[in-house]
């Protein structure tokens, strides 16, 4: 264990899972071996037919059940259940570096003005020679395509950390009931409205190539990305959003309070 920096936040890890018992076991083992153990791990069982929930309980972590299908609902249920200062999120088939939690903790302690950090990744399966290159291309394309729609950096759901206070402000706005959205892109629209999002170097994460193994799966991801952007229009149509964000940031620098957007009924 390394010494914790002054002002360090407490940390909850949220892992949505459905029928990924073997991968979840590996992920939880990696979290147990962290140089800085998380204060809480919340596994959200999204209707698994396999032993995912049992694997989590055997590991001694908190398990909650979300019967509404879809990653947006499961992830949101986990964020609602989290009790610590910072929520970090990864997928059941992810493999975090041993210093992942420590890196996140130090980043938030060092930057109290930042509410959201997101990191990169590398593939841990598939052709060995292409793992790092393909992951860089995938995440680079994600940023290039989504940043113009957002007006700022997107977040990557497999390597994501944000203050629980930020989640409390946006939880009524996210589209948690829509299973056909990318939950991380939806989060980026809402978190980026008022909170600084920064890229966290050194927060290494291994991800699986499984979602990209089939052409149909990749096509579905693209369609979900388009849908996620469109559900935020016309309020977040790029020119409208850009102007609003610029005005909001300008008023913030001047110390002028800006009213919050109302949550949808």
TrEMBL record:
CDD domains: Glyco_tranf_GTA_type (cd00761). One of its GO terms (molecular function) is glycosyltransferase activity. GO terms for cellular component: plasma membrane. InterPro entries: Glyco_trans_2-like, Nucleotide-diphossugar_trans. It holds the Pfam family Glycos_transf_2. Catalyzes the glycosylation of 4,4'-diaponeurosporenoate, i.e. the esterification of glucose at the C1'' position with the carboxyl group of 4,4'-diaponeurosporenic acid, to form glycosyl-4,4'-diaponeurosporenoate. This is a step in the biosynthesis of staphyloxanthin, an orange pigment present in most staphylococci strains. Belongs to the glycosyltransferase 2 family. CrtQ subfamily. Pathway: Carotenoid biosynthesis; staphyloxanthin biosynthesis; staphyloxanthin from farnesyl diphosphate: step 4/5. This is 4,4'-diaponeurosporenoate glycosyltransferase. Residues 12-132 form the Glycosyltransferase 2-like domain. Coiled coil: none annotated. It is found in: Cell membrane. Keywords: Cell membrane, Glycosyltransferase, Membrane, Transferase.
């Amino acid at each position: 264990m390394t010494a914790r920096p002054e002002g360090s936040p407490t940390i909850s890890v949220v892992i949505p899972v459905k029928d990924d018992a073997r991968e979840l076991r590996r992920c939880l083992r990696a979290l147990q071996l962290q140089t800085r153990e998380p204060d809480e791990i919340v596994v959200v069982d999204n209707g698994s037919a396999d032993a995912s929930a049992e694997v989590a309980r055997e590991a001694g972590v908190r398990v909650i059940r979300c019967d509404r299908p879809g990653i947006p609902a499961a992830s949101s249920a986990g964020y609602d259940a989290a009790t610590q200062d910072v929520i970090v999120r990864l997928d059941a088939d992810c493999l975090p570096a041993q210093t992942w939690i420590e890196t996140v903790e130090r980043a938030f302690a060092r930057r109290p003005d930042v509410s959201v950090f997101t990191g990169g990744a590398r593939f841990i399966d598939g052709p060995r020679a292409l793992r790092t290159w393909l992951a860089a291309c995938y995440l680079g394309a994600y940023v290039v395509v989504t940043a113009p729609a957002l007006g700022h950096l997107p977040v990557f759901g497999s390597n994501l950390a944000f203050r629980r206070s930020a989640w409390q402000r946006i939880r009524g706005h996210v589209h948690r009931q829509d299973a056909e959205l990318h939950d991380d892109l939806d989060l980026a629209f809402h978190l980026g409205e008022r909170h600084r999002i920064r890229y966290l170097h050194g927060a290494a994460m291994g991800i699986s190539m499984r979602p990209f193994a089939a052409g149909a799966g990749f096509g579905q991801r693209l369609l979900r990305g388009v849908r996620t952007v469109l559900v935020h229009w016309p309020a977040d149509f790029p020119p409208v959003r850009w102007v609003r964000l610029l005005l909001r940031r300008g008023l913030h620098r001047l110390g002028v309070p800006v009213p919050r957007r109302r949550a949808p009924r």
